[in-house]
């Protein structure tokens, strides 16, 4: 080995010493040094393969792979490739100038954001110099692929001074040797290194060898053409990504190269009702290098319920997250993915309606979330989004509008869609609705209260009412008033009697002429207030609707024989008991009776047996 110093020099950069800043800046993410060095090694290998392909390199290509070696005793980590290598001149140009200026430019640009942890996607742009986050000295031993090149060694200890000497090396390629600093010895651990390599490099296009094994799949399915792939390939890849998950429902292969470059495979997981815990499963890659699985701001919120991989070199990685949302490529990418997802769902809907219905319980949450949050998605989804009745029948919006037009249009020409959010609790109300031939929809997922609002806003002349929000004649008010068998005086009397027993200022009492086969008293929860309450409960906010009192209506059926009996009963005590009993029955039907009220009700009922 020739150790005569050929050149010592000073790297000219503006920042006096950028390394402490690098350390501070990337404090939480030191491990990315390995991603940067391995990516450089992969790039160098691919460049040589390309040159050989063009006929510009006729030497021995050798097995193109990148090897990572850990030497715990010497406290070094070495990244080796058999790529294009560098001449001493190229080291000066690429490492001393480009890499250094790249690093200082990067820091210059983002130093205002030093405290904003994770502000920059994947901390891209730092490249080779990220080695100094963990190394006290970095050594490069390299030989260019060009014929007659001499090997060179570059050493730098993290100051702006470097040294270049001649070196011994038979084959073209580069070794980057990191002499790990005392405060970074955590990286001198085999398992830790393997974990980092698997995280960032599991789909790199050149084999990465570590500790005798290859850690990566060099040709993940998103880099292939859909025509080469079978369903099994997609399913296997899903298992590779998420070994613990259930099988996906279906998938979309993304592949576009104009006006931006993007490939990927997105999977529809079985979501059921738990969309919160399944978020952040999409992995973002840039040319097969893992960047992040926090794709918020890159992918529309509702699409984050999907799983899979997106690979795009056109997503700017060295900008802060707030910039990202405004980036025109990111906007276009969002639009493209949304469109592809909607098209896929539409295709399944058209080609296999039965299969689509079967899957809808799993994807309904996703489709509804999309409809709520994205107008463009709504424009497509309105034709395939389904609503389900309590009898298990599925309808599109248009089909349902048509199905209920005849029987569920009120006197103002508004179609009324009835729904339940709890078929057990609202069983009596559902039953009454069905007796009248009404269809009752089932809206019992976490986002249905938002979905209902969106539907009402989007659909023309349609209102949605929960089955227990009004008495049946008013729920769909067709303007056909039942005759009351009671006089007006009797009705007023009855109202006062009930108000006295009820003794609740937030509830209102009305006496209505209902069919005799309806219950004597019905408690309804007005749609508007109930919805406000539901929404504020869902958002968890203490909004202006904060802890709202239960507002409900008590409707006394004037035509029920009990009404007449109550009025005619001589004994005031007995009258009170009868009113109390009928009120409690109505509360019971609404699930509103509990605690001491329920106990008292049971005692009273037992006494009458
Ligand atoms: N293993 C290597 N073999 C050959 N050349 C290399 C190798 N590593 C680095 N280089 C050269 O050094 C240059 C600077 O590397 P650096 O990682 O700082 O930036 P980059 O790879 O160009 O960009 P990025 O910021 O995306 O990493 C590279 O462009 C390349 O020319």
Automatic annotation (TrEMBL):
SUPFAM superfamilies xref list: ATPase domain of HSP90 chaperone/DNA topoisomerase II/histidine kinase, Ribosomal protein S5 domain 2-like
Entry keyword set: ATP-binding, Chaperone, Nucleotide-binding
Record keyword Cytoplasm present: no
PROSITE patterns on file: HSP90
InterPro entries cross-referenced by the UniProt entry: HATPase_C_sf (IPR036890), Heat_shock_protein_90_CS (IPR019805), HSP90_C (IPR037196), Hsp90_fam (IPR001404), Hsp90_N (IPR020575), Ribosomal_Su5_D2-typ_SF (IPR020568)
Keyword ATP-binding attributed: yes
Pfam families to which the protein is assigned, alphabetical: HATPase_c_3, HSP90
Family stated for the protein in its record: Belongs to the heat shock protein 90 family.
NCBIfam families: PRK05218.1
Protein's recorded name: Molecular chaperone HtpG
Species, as recorded: Larkinella insperata
Lineage of producing organism: Bacteria, Pseudomonadati, Bacteroidota, Cytophagia, Cytophagales
């Amino acid at each position: 080995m020739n150790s005569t110093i050929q050149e010592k020099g000073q790297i000219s950069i503006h920042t006096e010493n950028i390394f402490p800043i690098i350390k501070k800046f990337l404090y939480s993410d030191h491990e990315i040094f390995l991603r940067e060095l391995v990516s450089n090694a992969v790039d160098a290998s691919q460049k040589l393969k390309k040159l050989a392909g063009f006929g510009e390199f006729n030497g021995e290509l050798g097995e193109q792979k990148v090897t990572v070696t850990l030497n715990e005793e010497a406290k070094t980590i070495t990244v080796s490739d058999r790529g294009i290598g560098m001449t001493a001149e190229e080291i000066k140009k690429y490492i001393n100038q480009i890499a250094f200026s790249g690093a200082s430019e990067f820091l210059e640009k983002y130093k205002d954001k030093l405290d904003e942890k994770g502000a920059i996607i994947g901390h891209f742009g730092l490249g080779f110099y990220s080695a100094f986050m963990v190394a006290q000295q970095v050594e490069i031993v390299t030989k260019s692929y060009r014929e007659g090149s001499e090997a060179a060694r570059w050493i730098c200890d993290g100051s702006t001074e470097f040294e270049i000497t001649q070196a011994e090396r038979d084959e073209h390629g580069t070794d980057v040797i990191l002499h790990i600093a005392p405060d970074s010895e955590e990286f001198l651990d085999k398992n830790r290194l393997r974990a980092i390599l698997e995280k960032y490099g599991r789909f790199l296009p050149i084999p990465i060898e570590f500790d005798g094994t290859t850690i990566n799949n060099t040709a993940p399915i998103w880099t292939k053409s859909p025509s080469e792939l079978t369903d099994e390939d997609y399913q296997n890849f899903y298992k590779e990504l998420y070994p613990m998950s259930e099988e996906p429902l279906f998938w979309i292969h993304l592949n576009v190269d104009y006006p931006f470059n993007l490939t990927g495979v997105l999977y529809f997981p079985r979501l059921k009702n738990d969309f919160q815990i399944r978020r952040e499963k999409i992995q973002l890659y840039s040319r097969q290098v893992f960047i992040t699985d926090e794709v918020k701001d890159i992918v529309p919120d509702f699409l984050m319920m999907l799983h899979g991989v997106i690979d795009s070199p056109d997503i700017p990685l060295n900008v802060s997250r707030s910039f990202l949302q405004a980036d025109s490529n990111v906007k276009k990418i969002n639009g493209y993915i949304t469109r592809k997802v909607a098209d896929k769902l539409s295709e399944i809907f058209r080609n296999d309606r039965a299969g689509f219905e079967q899957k809808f319980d799993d994807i309904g949450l996703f489709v509804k979330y999309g409809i709520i949050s994205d107008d463009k998605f709504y424009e497509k989804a309105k034709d395939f989004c389904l609503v389900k009745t309590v009898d298990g029948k599925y309808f599109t919006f248009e089909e349902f509008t048509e199905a209920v037009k005849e029987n569920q249009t009120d006197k103002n020409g508004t179609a009324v869609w009835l729904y339940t959010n709890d078929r057990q609790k609202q069983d009596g109300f559902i039953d009454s609705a069905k007796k009248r031939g009404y269809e009752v929809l089932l809206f019992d997922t976490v986002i249905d209260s938002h979905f209902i609002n969106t539907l009402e806003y989007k659909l023309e002349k349609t209102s949605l009412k929960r089955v227990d929000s009004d008495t049946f004649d008013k729920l769909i008010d067709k303007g056909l008033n039942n005759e009351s068998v009671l006089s007006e005086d009797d009705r007023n009397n009855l109202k006062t009697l009930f108000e006295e027993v009820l003794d609740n200022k937030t509830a209102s009492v009305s006496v209505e002429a209902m069919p005799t086969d309806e219950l004597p008293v019905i408690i309804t929860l007005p749609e508007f207030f109930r919805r406000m309450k539901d929404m504020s409960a869902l958002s968890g906010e203490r909004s202006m609707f904060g802890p709202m009192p239960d507002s409900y209506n008590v409707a006394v059926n004037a035509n029920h024989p009990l009404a007449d009996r109550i009025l005619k009963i001589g004994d005031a005590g007995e009258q009170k008991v009868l009113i109390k009993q009928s009120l409690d029955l109505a509360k019971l039907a609404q699930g509103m009776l509990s605690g001491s009220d329920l106990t008292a009700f049971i005692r009273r009922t037992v006494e009458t047996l």
